């Protein structure tokens, strides 16, 4: 086949891809379904022209189409990594984590259940060996990400529904292809009845090996990309190589799942890339991958659909029965998970609830496509698979794929409509009216400025202003006079609008580089939670999301445990630095929201609602300030360094604005402008570097702030700081139990604790100590100490405390005061012992 003819066919396929999207919009059918239909038509037409004697002129073209080098490896090694990698880059991982239980249930458990169900159903209904039946089950258990994602985006499905479907379709490819590899091996080895237990036991090893391989390769790639961060094309080129290297290394060298490796590599880059790469480079990288994935998804559908007529050439009547068995078993297995396991997990509070309409849509949205056909093609190409099994696998996989695309795909929009998921709820309808009213008010102000600037005719302006004012008045009345909206729903509308503006403000700050790209993902995720919290739970849902945005998460607790138990301070230092920057970013954004309440929301909903929103906003600001103050107390000086960094970045942004204005006014030429921007970029790169948080050095500052040690010289202070160890306690954490033998004294650097003994409680705060009485009294005091706020404690062991006590008059006074408060004999506790030199205190 000539290279010219192949090139012409590929170029023609791109023309088909370009025409398919507007055709799908016109016919109101999913884009993927149109591509599949076009591919089938092209393949069937090629076969028809070769077999008919009506014309021979198109035979060379038909032969070229049927002779295209379409092999399973092309799909699995070229197109599939592209689709999976781009899907991971486009995921909002933090929002996916909110629904990780249903996603994993559908992506892993449902795949295993469907594979086993289809396999045993086929084994019962046919004479095929069990290994071949399970192989077919694995092939048809994977939903196609390009088919599913494109359809749910095209029909404007609810955000949470689309998120669950996208997460499932991405991750279950990995699970299904891993199972496919297992059962393909059994079929090629001629094992008719494999041990299902042995097969599933090997499954986690494929997953773990692929995940580790992808993570390692991605980490190396990210480090290299960070080194070349000033060379955008180099960064993008490395990103293009990443998924293919991960796939090949996992498959060929490690013997693990290449699909899992690609997913792990994409997730790693998604998490690390925004913080390690320049914002513009990261944006351009994702834009390129969007284009590559669009082409790959379209080509994989058309090329796979070209194979369908050939796969169905040998179809028999009894094959339709087996296709029906596959369809019934697949839908039944999926329904068992959706309507059996998920409600059970929700009842046990192990998973967020998924509404019944959502579960019906997920059931009907399990489309198969090019991935299923590619796996089936891999079976038909293998000379080690018996011919009879090749034929059945090809027909059943193709028949089931056609059913899901043509039957489910074309009716999915109708199904969504029947379930009412495409209609706005009353509160969303009211929100849309509010948006129209607010938008028109802004437009009126902008139009007024425009007419003044262009000095238009007053009569024309007056008539058009009157016409526009009537439309505006009507929109405002509709927004205010919604009889079906209760007062609490009006509060919800205001909160949704406020959270939406918060999200817009964050995006503006990111574009201005006032907020770093690394923090943008987190603060945007928090804003999305505020929107969904207000939408689903009103004021209480909004407040829960607001509290969550400043709370210490599980990861922070785990990092604190590593520091307390194993003295590994790296994770805690990184997470603390992230928390510092996150809180500073939140404070920056929240202080800009008051003007939006006064300028927009008050116009629509009146003073009462605006005052309520101001109160809620004030509470959020206070919570952020309190959290920041707690960190400042834990790490004196570090917050100041971050604030200095913020000021430097703001100054550079303003400097850039001035250069742009001078360039537009013609005050400087292109050469001068380019040179100035290069210098600015170097300053900006230095300002982007976040100061390092060294917990060990911060301990010296913590010790210095205690009045007890105020008179120590620097040398003694440094020695004392090394004698202390730092412990972090979360709110509610038990520090000392009632039966604990006292062997340490705790100094509160920040936070607060509550002591309980003999039915009495009292609280201690920053600068105070506890645990000294147990040491001095030489007995268990039966006192329980629990942290009532995130606290940083400096811990000194018994021997060093006793030596310090004999040396420090200030510490003796503190112990005496504490003993007298508790009615103890301070003189007996502070019995004289020989003085020891200060230098021996720490040895």
Automatic annotation (TrEMBL):
<dbReference type="GO" id="GO:0051453">
    <property type="term" value="P:regulation of intracellular pH"/>
</dbReference>
<dbReference type="GO" id="GO:0005886">
    <property type="term" value="C:plasma membrane"/>
</dbReference>
<keyword id="KW-1003">Cell membrane</keyword>
<keyword id="KW-0812">Transmembrane</keyword>
<feature type="transmembrane region" description="Helical">
    <location>
        <begin position="203"/>
        <end position="226"/>
    </location>
</feature>
<dbReference type="InterPro" id="IPR014710">
    <property type="entry name" value="RmlC-like_jellyroll"/>
</dbReference>
<feature type="transmembrane region" description="Helical">
    <location>
        <begin position="128"/>
        <end position="149"/>
    </location>
</feature>
<feature type="transmembrane region" description="Helical">
    <location>
        <begin position="392"/>
        <end position="416"/>
    </location>
</feature>
<feature type="transmembrane region" description="Helical">
    <location>
        <begin position="100"/>
        <end position="122"/>
    </location>
</feature>
<dbReference type="GO" id="GO:0015386">
    <property type="term" value="F:potassium:proton antiporter activity"/>
</dbReference>
<protein>
    <submittedName>
        <fullName>Sodium/proton antiporter, CPA1 family</fullName>
    </submittedName>
</protein>
<feature type="transmembrane region" description="Helical">
    <location>
        <begin position="170"/>
        <end position="191"/>
    </location>
</feature>
<dbReference type="InterPro" id="IPR000595">
    <property type="entry name" value="cNMP-bd_dom"/>
</dbReference>
<keyword id="KW-0406">Ion transport</keyword>
<dbReference type="InterPro" id="IPR018422">
    <property type="entry name" value="Cation/H_exchanger_CPA1"/>
</dbReference>
<feature type="transmembrane region" description="Helical">
    <location>
        <begin position="360"/>
        <end position="380"/>
    </location>
</feature>
<dbReference type="Pfam" id="PF00999">
    <property type="entry name" value="Na_H_Exchanger"/>
</dbReference>
<keyword id="KW-1133">Transmembrane helix</keyword>
<keyword id="KW-0472">Membrane</keyword>
<keyword id="KW-0915">Sodium</keyword>
<feature type="transmembrane region" description="Helical">
    <location>
        <begin position="256"/>
        <end position="277"/>
    </location>
</feature>
<feature type="transmembrane region" description="Helical">
    <location>
        <begin position="320"/>
        <end position="348"/>
    </location>
</feature>
<dbReference type="InterPro" id="IPR018490">
    <property type="entry name" value="cNMP-bd_dom_sf"/>
</dbReference>
<dbReference type="GO" id="GO:0098719">
    <property type="term" value="P:sodium ion import across plasma membrane"/>
</dbReference>
<feature type="transmembrane region" description="Helical">
    <location>
        <begin position="29"/>
        <end position="50"/>
    </location>
</feature>
<feature type="transmembrane region" description="Helical">
    <location>
        <begin position="289"/>
        <end position="308"/>
    </location>
</feature>
<keyword id="KW-0739">Sodium transport</keyword>
<dbReference type="Pfam" id="PF00027">
    <property type="entry name" value="cNMP_binding"/>
</dbReference>
<feature type="domain" description="Cyclic nucleotide-binding">
    <location>
        <begin position="708"/>
        <end position="822"/>
    </location>
</feature>
<dbReference type="InterPro" id="IPR006153">
    <property type="entry name" value="Cation/H_exchanger_TM"/>
</dbReference>
<dbReference type="GO" id="GO:0015385">
    <property type="term" value="F:sodium:proton antiporter activity"/>
</dbReference>
<keyword id="KW-0813">Transport</keyword>
